[in-house]
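As a warm-up, study this chain.
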Amino acid sequence: MYSYSYVPPRDIRKCSLIPLIGFILGFGFMYFAGILPYATFLQIIGIAVLAITIFLTTRFVVRSYVYSTQEIGDGDYDFVVNEITGKKSRTVCRINADEITDLIYSPDGKIPSKYAGKNGKDILRYDYCQNFMPKDAYYLYAHLREGKICIKFSPDAHLAQILESLRPKDIG
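Now compare it with the structure written out below.
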């Protein structure tokens, strides 16, 4: 009844600009290290920029995510996030709908004030947004055996409605 999958769209401009600007800056610093004084300092900055660019490229360009709800029994559902890298897919998140304590929409993509600061210090946070610095996001909070967790993701309105209807209403 509630089995549903959603693949968030990718922001092509950000995906192509991240590697381009990062590699130009990184190699620019490396090039100018041979010309300008303070060569070691410029080389360190260049290597740091290239390392950050490689991380951002593998995180936001190479990987994509699929969010889904899957029925695992009679009336029992899981929220599942699959990470796709090339032709490989692996499940990176599986939460039973009964373990979801809160689902909050954030129009600016920032952590909700209810869970910011001291209220959220013991919560493990995971970011499964498709795009770098998304305009808006949902925050799913759950209480598992391992502790409290927070999942940041970008579902469509239909998936968010399904998750809201599946989660227990008496938990807060």
